[in-house]
Amino acid sequence: MKRGTLLCSTLTLGAALAASTALAAAPKDPLGVVSIKGNQPIHVAYWMVVAGPDASLGIDTRRGVELAIEAKGGKVLGHAVKLTGQDTGCNAEGGQAAATKLASDPTIVAAIGSNCSSEAKPGAPILWKAGIATVSPSNTAPYLTDAKRGPEYNGYLRTAHNDKVQGAVAAQFAIKKLGVKSAATIHDGSVYAEQLQAVFAEEFKKLGGKITSQEAVAPTDTDMRPVLTKIATGKPEFLYYPIFVAAGGHVTRQVKEVAGMEKVALMGADGIFSTDFYKAAGTTAVGMYHSSPDFSAFGGGYKDFVAKHEKKYGEKPISAFHAHGYDAAMMIFAAIEKVGVKDKDGTLHVGRQALRDALYATKGMAGLTGTLNCNEFGDCADPKIAVYQTTEENVKKLNMPTKPFWP
Amino acid sequence: MLRRFTEHKTATDLIMWGLGAVLLGLIVWGSAATLIKGVYSGRQWLDFVIFGLAQGSIYALIAMGYTMVYGVLRMINFAHSEVFMSGPFTAYYVAAAFYQNGFLESHPFLSLIVVFLVSMLTAVLIAFLLERIAYRPLRNAPRLVPLITAIGASFFLQYMFRGFFGSGFQAYPVIEALEGHFHFGPVRVLKFQALVIVAAAVLMVALYQFVQRSRLGKALRSVSEDKEASALMGIDVDRMISMTFIIGGAAAGAAGVLYALMFKQVHFFMGFIPGLKAFTAAVLGGIGNIPGAMLGGIFLGLVESVGPSLFLDGLGIVAPFQLKDAIAFTMLVLVLIFRPTGILGERLAVKKA
Questions:
Q1: Looking at the predicted structure, is the pLDDT value of residue A20 above 60?
Q2: Less CB within 10 Å around the terminal CB: N or C of chain A?
Q3: Residues paired with A44 in a beta bridge
Q4: Å from B315 to nearest chain A CA?
Q5: Of A230, A245, A259, which is closest to B188 when you measure between CB atoms?
């Protein structure tokens, strides 16, 4: 912090000089100012899960960010944009490590991430302590933008939907479309899965359904047959397991092998809505349901985005949050453009608090995922959730379903 | 035994015994509560036992490698979990190739044998090189040195395979011939679980017979008793130590394919948890003792599978299956309190003392 104030005072001195030449003054900022010389790039960092079993989630969002940079012509306010990043591993430890690494780099203007909510819970406060605001493209756990989350999350926003919406949609789908009366849930102890299945269970009960059991496994568990046998004793008609790829794959493969579970309808959420999951579950995934952002309700630019994506990476998007990654990057660029101040010699100054405030002030921004309006707790999404059903072709060719099954 | 215990009774001992007694009491209470409630049918209990046997035989096979190396070198080979990973991860590419050209479908058992061989050979090679490069130069160093080296070697191997095959996972193809169930009266066993249990049992018996009956096995046992005396009797100690690693590697390679058949996913970090569990199993059974490792592995598999529903459920714990690992490691603590040498370890411990 001391270095920050020193930097601040030198900058104010510089600002006073600049003011005399009638140019815009370098900003004073309580959290410090990032100054980028004329030929230096604007450094934006991602913290996403780009390795390991859940890599498709992070690679998908990173591609969204890369395409956003491309759409800006690689430049914001005349400065090139430099994107670096850290893998987060889809767990709390990984999120903490990645955030700590990013926080130690004073050139980072803003961050994009994380993917899994468990990463953001310890990670976002670390970044905010260093004055780095972060926009998440795929954290969906309600806690992160809850009124009770505490001031350490003040630098955190998200373009992803809140699971209060997603869990409710899943319950409505089960009751209204499938007409099931009893359901069981499995979570893996992560903030995401635990809260999402809780929202689902609450809504399911409210709509008149019966929850037979709410079980938990560890994300590293491989043998799900015992827990599935326990679930079978409650005779549910529907199994909701909004967990991640490795464990989700094991549940999907093993559920049909357990006596009494052969006819249960299966549903996962956006965390396992990816081609990697199809690889993990194989043909056993055919017929199962996923809740996910509704691609067909996305803004007009989405078709164009998918075409560019296919051209650049040789495949269609591999998971659910690419457009949210694009929107997160665009939100950050718009905020930098709003608060960035240029010196006479071309140095760009971005105040950290000012940038955060500008991000929170995002209103009516037309994004790929819809119109972005940030509330006071950083929820910016325009949530449209649909339910998709996996077909044999999806699994064989490893591509995502594009047409929603419901509504 | 009893006299020794009363002589050295300290406050720590008492606390440990108290802790053990409380845990045992909880287990008994929980089991009784579950059985009285009668949530599970007899068939479901049988299912739990079979799941546990299949999982346990894999632990047992891996545990053999830990226990044999400990028996000979008095060190814990922490890189053994990576030996376990190397086999099936490499053999995956063979399995995938067979799947693509249809060979797997037309000759499922022949291709399975090839996959097993590739996996075992890879694991043997890795285990052999591991000993030659990482452990042999440190043979006479203080005991902590090879232990730290083992951890380093473990990381090295993990990231080497990550470099070879990527950080993502691969999914083993489904073998149609192994899908479905066998019915033995009221007992229903998944075909591949039957394969896992039978294959593991055959391998373990074969290995045990080899160590007990063959000349090479005799030499091996003599090296584990006393290296110097064995050398004086004309046994090539270095060769015997390499042999130990080779046998352990072969068992781990086979266990790897069985694991892959059961769970389908393979990745560079897959060895960590099973390795830790197998190490626990080896200690449970009495480290250094081959039948002990087998017993420990199967016991651990059973406890993991039956335990959450048997005693955690009865105690009213929410979502008990999340605590599977906690049960496994609590078992370890219990055994270490009541029988520090492990279930079958006493004879050995006396001899070595």
A1: no
A2: N
A3: A83, A110
A4: 15
A5: A259
